[in-house]
Amino acid sequence: VGKMAARLGGENRLVSLPLSRIRVIMKSSPEVSSINQDALFLTAKATELFVQYLATYSYKHGRGKEKNALTYSDLSHTAEECETFQFLADILPKKILASKYLKMLEKEKQDGEVAADAEEEEEEEEDEDKT
Hints:
By secondary structure, the chain is an all-alpha fold. The protein has helices at 2-6, 19-27, 37-61, 64-67, 72-81, 98-130.
């Protein structure tokens, strides 16, 4: 792999992602003190292959095929539905309208208040049973 990493210059690059950016991301981890050139290359290549796999899977299983395009909703659907990609669900959330989001927040707030009220009633009943 050392020979491959050395040939990264020029037009026939073996990776498309910028190695300097990947190095910065890797160094942002407190456990990393130095980065071997081969490790950097392999991380870049693995990242590229992962993104390619995510895009291909999302395209094949999404509605973008109809438009001959990969859409954000295809990616977010994949992150939500496919177990392999569920760790991306926070990064690729489904798009919703702001008004719908506000309604969801209001409902969560109401549900939280209802749950809190129910807990208080249970505690009061327990206190009455003890006396």
